[in-house]
Structures are given as structure tokens and as C-alpha cells.
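Dear H.,

Thanks for agreeing to be a second pair of eyes. The structure we're designing against is below in C-alpha cell form, covering all 275 positions.
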């Protein structure tokens, strides 16, 4: 700032106010805004006073100083505008930085959105896999249902075979019952036939008993007669007839064994035989 004041005084003494102001501004710019304002004011006043003394006119110097103050005021307004512009630039930079931060946040949000989309895609893929597994499960369930239907059909066939077997068993039982009835009927017929056979057997037994009794009687009767009469020397006609009649003859389906026995017993005993 001291350098800027010295330069402004030097230029003011030379009588060049515009150059003093310009020099003050030019040398104040490398410093700061306050140095610019102070250098401009001091340079303008010093230059005006030097210019007024040099030309010997107090009024002119006052007018010149007034003009310098007006110029200073204009410079101050310019500096104020520059400060406002700097503030605006700072605000713009701040806004840009905020915009950059917002963009960075937007980028982060986009990245998060991309990650969410990727996660959603993975979820969709997992959902597709789950759907495929569900489809496979449904197919397996359909196969199980088909196997169950086949089992039911086989069970129905088994039931039909069981019913057929039961019907065959009933038929066999009926046939067995019919066979049993036929067997009982045959047994009853056999009993009846046996009864018919027993009756002739009884009659034959009675006949045999009667024959035994008759034979015993005839033997007793013939024995007593043989002991009183001698034996004949030759066969007479009656003896021949009796002997010839001996044999098996059939009379009404019965054997003539009894008659043969009677004929044999009718032969007179030989001489010397006892009774």
C-alpha cells in the first residue's frame, strides 16, 4: 500500500491526475482492495493539490479536487461493483461447488439405483429360478398323480379280479353243493339198492336154513329105511330117472341146486353103509 501511495503522489506532482489514478489502481491491484481505494484517494488529492499549486489557481485546484473526489467516488463504486462481482463469482463458484456436490450425490444416487437395479435383476433371476423349480415340482406332482391313477387302475383291476375270483368261488361252491347233493342222492340210491339186495339175501338165508332143516330130516328118514332093505343088484327105472334128473335146471330164474341135492340124497345107500 505504501508503494501505491508513493506512486500516486509522484504522478500527482507531475500534474497527471488520470495517470495518477490509473497508476494508483494499477499498483493497488497487486495488493488488495483497501490499498486500491486508499492509493486512489491519496494520489488524486496530492495530484490535484500539486496541479493547483503549479498553475497557481486555487479555484481550479478545488474544482480539480472535486472532480478527483467524484472520480474517487466513481472508483469506489467501481471497486464496490468489483467486490459485488467477486461476491457474485464466489457465490457462483459456491453454487458450482454445490452443483458439483449435487451432481456427485446424483451420481452416487445413480450408482445406488444401478446397484438396486442389479439387485432387482438378481431377484428376478432368483424368481425365475424359483418359478422353474415350481414348474419342475408341478411336473413331478403331475407324474405322481399319473402314477397314483395307474395304481388306482391296477387296484380296480385287482378288485375286479377279486370279484371274479369270488364269483368263481361261489360257482365252485354251488357246483360242490350240487355234487354233494348228487353224492347224497347216489348214497341214498345205494342204500335203497343195498336194501333191495339185503331182502333177497335174507330170503336166501331163510331158504338155506329151511334146506338145512329139510336135509337133516331127509337124512334121518333115509337112514332108517336103508337099514331095513338090502341094496339092489342093478339099477331099476326109478333109480335111473332119479339120477337123470340131477343137474342144473333153471325154473323162473332160480337155480335148481336144491333139487340136485334132493336127487343125490334120494339114492339109496349101498350095502354095508351105516346111517
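And this is the sequence the design step returned. I haven't edited it by hand at all.
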Amino acid at each position: 500500500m505504501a508503494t501505491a501511495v508513493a506512486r500516486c503522489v509522484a504522478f500527482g506532482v507531475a500534474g497527471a491526475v488520470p495517470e495518477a489514478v490509473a497508476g494508483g489502481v494499477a499498483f493497488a491491484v497487486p495488493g488488495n482492495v483497501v490499498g486500491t481505494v486508499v492509493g486512489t484517494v491519496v494520489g488524486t488529492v496530492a495530484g490535484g493539490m500539486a496541479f493547483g499549486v503549479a498553475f497557481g489557481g486555487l479555484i481550479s485546484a478545488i474544482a480539480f479536487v472535486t472532480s478527483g473526489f467524484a472520480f474517487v467516488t466513481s472508483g469506489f463504486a467501481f471497486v464496490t461493483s468489483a467486490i459485488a462481482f467477486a461476491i457474485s463469482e464466489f457465490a457462483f463458484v459456491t453454487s458450482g461447488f454445490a452443483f458439483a456436490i449435487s451432481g456427485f450425490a446424483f451420481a452416487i444416487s445413480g450408482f445406488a439405483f444401478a446397484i438396486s437395479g442389479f439387485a432387482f435383476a438378481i431377484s428376478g433371476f432368483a424368481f425365475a429360478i424359483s418359478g422353474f423349480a415350481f414348474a419342475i415340482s408341478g411336473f413331478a406332482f403331475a407324474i405322481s398323480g399319473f402314477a397314483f391313477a395307474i395304481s388306482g387302475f391296477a387296484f380296480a383291476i385287482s378288485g375286479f379280479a377279486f370279484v371274479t375270483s369270488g364269483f368263481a368261488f361261489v360257482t365252485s361252491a354251488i357246483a360242490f353243493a350240487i355234487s354233494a347233493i348228487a353224492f347224497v342222492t347216489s348214497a341214498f340210491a345205494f342204500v335203497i339198492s343195498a336194501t333191495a339186495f339185503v331182502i333177497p339175501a335174507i330170503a336166501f338165508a331163510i331158504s338155506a336154513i329151511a334146506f338145512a332143516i329139510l336135509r337133516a330130516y331127509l337124512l334121518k328118514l333115509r337112514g332108517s329105511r336103508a337099514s331095513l332093505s338090502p341094496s339092489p343088484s342093478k339099477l331099476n327105472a326109478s333109480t335111473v330117472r332119479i339120477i337123470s334128473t340131477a343137474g342144473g335146471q333153471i325154473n323162473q330164474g332160480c337155480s335148481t341146486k336144491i333139487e340136485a341135492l334132493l336127487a343125490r340124497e334120494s339114492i339109496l345107500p349101498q350095502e354095508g353103509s351105516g346111517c
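Two observations from my side: The CA atoms of residues 149 and 155 lie 10 Å apart. Confidence is low (pLDDT under 50) at residues 23-31.

Warmly,
E.
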